[in-house]
Design brief:
The complex is a heterodimer of chains A (about 120) and B (about 675). In chain A, about 40% of the residues lie in helices and about 20% in strands. Chain A contains 5 helices and 5 strands. Chain A is globular. Chain B is elongated. Chain B contains 17 helices and 24 strands. Helices cover about 40% and strands about 25% of the residues of chain B. Chain B has a 6-stranded antiparallel beta sheet. Chain B is α+β, with helices and mostly antiparallel strands and about 675 residues long. Classes of the chains: A alpha/beta (about 120), B alpha+beta (about 675).
């Protein structure tokens, strides 16, 4: 049984591409949701092995979703990687300070995305 | 021998002699004529006008004797001056007072002497008119009478001599004064009691005019003074005469050109040729007035500028205390006028940060200006108002340097709330655009990458080729977006460096890792001579310097022919001018080179060496422009040398701050 990633992004295209990349290139099992609220609900229902979380989303954005997850004892341990369209390291630093274990930049190389995720998590699918 | 008796009042007598001012003066014909005549009349070989000084007798005139003087103690005249009616020694050898006198026993071998005292105007016997012979003689009353006549005539000549010399003294003194008066820049005139000018120095003649037709001397003073009536001038002179002269007055005089000139005049009374005069010496106030008017005008202008300036302008002393603050400074800080004067400017404007942090005075911008003499321009800062609220300012603090020491500073500040607001919304906009551009690019790049990567199965070759074009250009679009956002930050002054110490070799290795694929793809060799043995660390924003080196290496790969070699080397140098050590990193290629006329232009935005560059693919045309800005933000330099057909060398020089053993942990 492969490990499962929860992919959270409000953009349909990004979700489709990232999912295809992680599943087909990386071999992960991926659950994809379109909002922070959906992510909490999904994680609560069935905790994933790791979460890839978009930063800028309507409603509950990435940082607030992370805070929500951290506020729940049963979800706080799940490693979170931000997936951001903000390119600069200063912004990345502030995201890391929130408690994420890594930051990946959009646009990403679909052939390399899984490798980057594995490198950050320290485990593969 | 008996020495002559010294009279009780000899000091007065000698004083009277000295007052005649005849001792030690050259011989004069008017005295010599008398002694010559006396020698003829009395048929004696020697005739003298002898003056008896303290310890000597000195001959104003002497016929038949070479010595100019002899000692008083052995003199015959020393005796003679004590004898108002004359003194005669008919045979010195028979006279116990003189028999053994050296003047008798030796040259000039005096045997006969007859002397008649010469009296000064106030009656002191100052010397004698005397006759001497080397043989004994008798001297009758008739002869004594004639001798007295000679003495009387000599006295007359002596008096004339005295008058002559005192007049000469007076003339000399007057001449000296005249020279002084002529050479000073002050206007000096003497006015007699009738109000006429009796003397005018050269400055006065130049100012007031002096010609043969209208000589200045002789004119009534009222003719040149324009702001006093003749009556007033007469009154002034009257006052001067009675000793009540005003010490200082300002008067207007008519200059030679007809202009009215203000003079600052001081007055004194004096004697000129025995007449009392009124001496007026004046200074031309024209230039002083002009200078004062100019200073007042400049002062008014400065005041106007300071009062009208929308910026706060504050002068602080070397301790940071406000000496002056303009109205805008008070307005911007919501303070009433003059409330700033005497206050510590830094403290009053930096009470607390929004987070409660206190800004220490030491090390603040103003402190640096005062202590380092540095001009700190256009600093962004936050000032407190009187009510504790704060607002963003752009602030410049410049040192005031007097006698090569910093004595204070001028602080100019402007409220930049509006700009800050504009910048904030611009940042928001850029951030949004950034997100909105990247999101579709993510989908594009991702789907194309997966297709091209064969994730969905092998595609026909033509389709694969088309996909490769799409992937390359998507990457190019991504870089363009990144570069444009970078430049926007640079232009807005919002690009911030995150500075840490980085080993030089690590920076180069990281950069090479980014372009390794490109080199392989283009079959270009890469030789890296920057090893850890360099032992150097650079304080920099590592990501940014890697970005710069990656750009240079990428360009070198792109523009090098297959099979050629790109080398990366480094060395250190000292900029003596700046007193800094620099590390220089060179990226050298064997590409086609850059024509000299384009060398500098390659650092401009959207500039490529020629249109064929587009074929080399994927450049945004912004890479070098950004690289140069990034290097300059590190106080370094990015330069290029190139030889068309041979290759180019790009050099990045960065100040060395650390050595590797001091690298931040």
């Amino acid at each position: 049984m492969t490990r499962r990633l929860l992919l959270v992004d409000d953009d349909d295209g990004v979700r489709l591409v990232a999912r295809a990349s992680l599943e087909r290139v990386g071999g992960w099992t991926v659950t994809a949701v379109r909002s922070g609220a959906d992510a909490i609900e999904s994680a609560a229902a069935s905790p994933p092995d790791a979460i890839l979380l978009d930063v800028m989303m309507p409603g509950l954005d990435g940082p607030n979703t992370l805070a929500e997850l951290q506020g729940r004892a049963e979800l706080a341990h799940i490693p979170v990687i931000f997936l951001t369209a903000k390119a600069r390291s200063a912004q990345h630093d502030s995201l890391l300070r929130l408690g994420a274990i890594g930051v990946l930049v959009k646009p990403f190389d679909p052939m390399q995305l899984s490798n980057q995720v594995v490198a950050l998590l320290g485990f593969g699918p | 021998m008996i020495e002559p008796t010294i009279p009780i009042d000899d000091d007065d007598r000698v004083g009277a002699l000295h007052a005649l001012q005849v001792l030690d003066t050259p011989t004069e014909e008017r005295f010599d004529r008398l002694t010559r005549l006396a020698a003829l009349v009395f048929e004696v070989p020697i005739a003298l006008v002898s003056l008896v000084d303290n310890n000597r007798q000195w001959f104003k005139s002497c016929i038949g004797l070479d010595a100019p003087e002899t000692e008083r103690s052995i003199s015959f005249c020393g005796h003679a001056i004590n004898q108002p009616d004359g003194f005669v020694v008919e045979d010195a050898l028979l006279d116990e007072r003189f028999a053994d006198n050296p003047l008798v026993t030796a040259e000039p071998f005096i045997r006969f002497y007859a002397g008649q005292p010469l009296r000064s105007p106030d009656g002191f016997p100052v010397g004698t008119f005397c006759l001497i012979d080397r043989v004994p003689r008798s001297f009758d009353d008739a002869q004594r009478k004639i001798l007295r006549e000679f003495a009387a005539q000599t006295e007359t000549e002596l008096r004339r001599h005295e008058q002559h010399s005192s007049m000469r003294d007076k003339r000399e003194a007057e001449e000296r004064l005249r020279v002084v008066a002529e050479s000073v820049a002050e206007v000096i005139v003497a006015i007699d009691l009738r109000g006429r000018i009796v003397f005018a120095n050269s400055a006065a003649r130049d100012l007031l005019g002096d010609s043969a037709e209208v000589p200045l001397v002789g004119l009534p003073a009222a003719r040149v003074v324009t702001d006093r009536s003749p009556q007033e001038i007469a009154d002034l002179i009257q006052q001067a005469e009675s000793g009540n002269a005003s010490e200082r007055l300002e008067v207007q005089v008519r200059s030679v050109g007809g202009r009215s000139i203000p003079l600052d005049v001081t007055f004194a009374t004096a004697q000129l040729d025995g007449e009392p005069v009124y001496i007026a010496s004046g200074r031309d106030l024209t230039q002083q007035r002009q200078a004062r008017r100019e200073i007042e005008m400049i002062g008014q202008q400065h005041q106007l500028i300071l009062n009208s300036s929308a910026d706060g302008i504050v002068r602080i002393d070397s301790g940071g205390i406000v000496i002056y603050a303009n109205p805008s400074a008070h307005r911007l800080l919501h303070l009433v006028d003059d409330a700033l004067t005497g206050q510590q400017f830094h403290t009053i404007t930096h009470r607390t940060e929004t987070d409660g942090r206190v800004h220490p005075w030491m090390g603040s911008a103003m402190w640096q200006t005062l202590h380092e003499g540095e001009t700190l321009a256009a600093l962004r800062d936050t000032f407190n108002r009187a009510d504790g609220s704060s607002f963003p300012v752009s602030c410049t603090s410049a040192p005031i340097i007097e006698d090569s020491a910093v004595t204070g500073a001028v602080v100019v500040f402007a409220d930049v709330s509006e700009q800050a607001e504009i910048e904030r919304s611009k940042d928001e906009f850029v951030s949004l655009v950034s997100h909105e551009l990247r999101t579709p690019l993510t989908s594009l790049k991702g789907s194309l990458g997966l297709l091209s990567g064969g994730v969905f199965g092998r595609l026909p070759d033509e389709a694969q080729e088309m996909l490769a074009v799409a992937v390359t250009n998507t990457d190019r679009l991504v870089r363009l977006v990144n570069d444009i956002l970078d430049l926007q930050r640079v232009d807005a002054g919002r690009l911030q460096l995150s500075v840490q110490s980085h080993p030089l070799a690590q920076l180069v290795d990281d950069s090479i890792a980014n372009v390794r694929g490109l080199f392989t793809e283009r079959e270009v060799h890469l030789e890296n001579y920057v090893g850890l043995q360099e032992g150097l660390a650079v304080r920099c924003d590592g990501d940014r310097i890697v970005q710069v080196l990656t750009n240079l290496l990428g360009n070198a790969a792109k523009f090098s022919p297959a099979g050629s070699t790109v080398t990366v080397t480094s060395y250190t140098e000292t900029d003596l001018h700046q007193g800094l050590d620099f590390v220089v990193i060179e990226v050298a290629d064997n590409g086609r080179g850059i024509p000299p006329e384009r060398l500098e232009r390659i650092f401009e935005r959207f500039e490529q060496v020629d249109s064929s560059d587009a074929r080399h693919g994927s450049g945004s045309g912004l890479g070098l422009a950004i690289a140069r800005v990034l290097v300059e933000m590190h106080d370094g330099r990015l330069t290029v040398t190139s030889e068309p057909g041979v290759g180019s060398v790009f050099s990045v020089s960065l100040p060395i701050v650390d050595h590797v053993d001091e690298v931040d942990a």
